[in-house]
């Protein structure tokens, strides 16, 4: 089975009750598994939202009340034992907790029941975004092209919430400046697509960044900015000098957002 990630499903909104039940409560999540093992790095993220915080204003979203990250390796062996014989697959029920950080402390804001059942899937339609990155055809070099940076934008995990506990809509912005303490000219900026209303965006896209027309040598600084379109300032911003880069040599950057 192929490995898929960042699948998203949701129930309908419940009534104004303290113990909601949902008619839409069963979802098929594609995971990476073989007849004898389950990838232990996989997890399922549950989130509880208050939809009454939504208004008719554009870009408003439900308020996140709490989250629960459940690692599949905790129940992998039991699921595999149940699916290896000819009997009915083993269903595992768990009582889990929604938590959030309040005043620098992790607090429980609710509890819920979840059931897990491993089933073999055949001829499954894949999720729209696979792990394989979407590559662009190599464009021809223009009259003013002196250098080109190929950028692969991957993903972000556990991104910080926006103002008033809004779920962010994140994108990555790339730019160039001649000096490291200089503002980026808007003509020298290229953004990624915006992943709407998620703390765990998956871009998996590629772009080519060419030198500005007035630049005739490998010089200046290449900038990466992580932004939430609902906020004016960047969540994180860093740069590196082009003079330190080697042609045809890949560089991997992992950045913690605080």
What does this structure look like?
The chain has 258 residues and is mainly beta. The chain folds into two domains: 1-125, no CATH class; 148-244, Sandwich (Immunoglobulin-like). It has one helix spanning 76-84; strands at residues 43-50, 63-71, 91-102, 105-117, 148-155, 170-177, 189-191, 202-210, 221-228, 234-241. The strands form four sheets. It has a four-stranded antiparallel beta sheet, with no helix packed on it. A two-stranded antiparallel ribbon has the order 1-2. A two-stranded antiparallel ribbon has the order 3-4. It is elongated. It starts with 42 loop residues before the first strand and ends in a 17-residue tail after the last strand. Mean pLDDT is 76; it is low at 1-5, 56-60 and 121-131.
Beta strands, count: 10
Helix and strand composition category: mainly beta
The largest pleated sheet is described as: 4 strands, antiparallel
Number of domains: 2
Element order, helices and strands? EEHEEEEEEEE
Uncertain parts: 1-5, 56-60, 121-131
The share of residues in extended strands comes to 25-35%
Summed up:
With 258 residues, the protein is mostly beta strands. The chain is built from one helix and ten strands, in the order ββαββββββββ. 3% of the residues lie in helices and 33% in strands.
């Amino acid at each position: 089975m192929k490995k898929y990630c960042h699948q998203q499903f949701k129930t309908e909104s419940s009534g104004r009750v303290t113990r909601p039940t949902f008619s839409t409560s069963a979802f098929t999540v594609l995971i990476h598994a073989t007849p004898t093992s389950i990838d232990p790095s996989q997890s399922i993220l549950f989130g509880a939202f208050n939809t009454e915080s939504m208004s008719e204003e554009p870009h408003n979203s439900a308020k996140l009340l709490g989250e629960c990250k459940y690692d599949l390796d905790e129940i992998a062996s039991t699921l595999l034992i149940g699916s290896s014989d000819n009997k009915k697959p083993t269903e595992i029920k768990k009582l889990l907790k929604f938590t959030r950080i309040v005043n620098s402390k992790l607090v429980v804001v609710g509890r819920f029941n979840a059931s897990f059942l491993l089933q073999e899937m055949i001829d499954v339609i894949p999720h729209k975004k696979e792990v394989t990155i979407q590559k662009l055809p190599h464009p021809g070099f223009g009259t003013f092209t002196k250098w080109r940076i190929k950028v692969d934008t991957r993903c972000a995990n556990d991104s910080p919430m926006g103002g008033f506990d809004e779920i962010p809509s994140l994108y990555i912005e790339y730019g160039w400046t001649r000096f490291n303490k200089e503002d980026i000219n808007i003509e020298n900026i290229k953004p990624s697509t915006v992943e709407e209303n998620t703390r765990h965006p998956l871009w998996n896209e590629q772009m080519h960044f060419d030198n500005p027309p007035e630049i005739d040598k490998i010089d200046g600084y290449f900038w990466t900015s992580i932004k939430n379109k609902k906020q004016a300032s960047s969540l994180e911003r860093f740069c590196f000098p082009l003079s330190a880069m080697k042609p045809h040599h890949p560089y991997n950057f992992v950045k913690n957002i605080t």
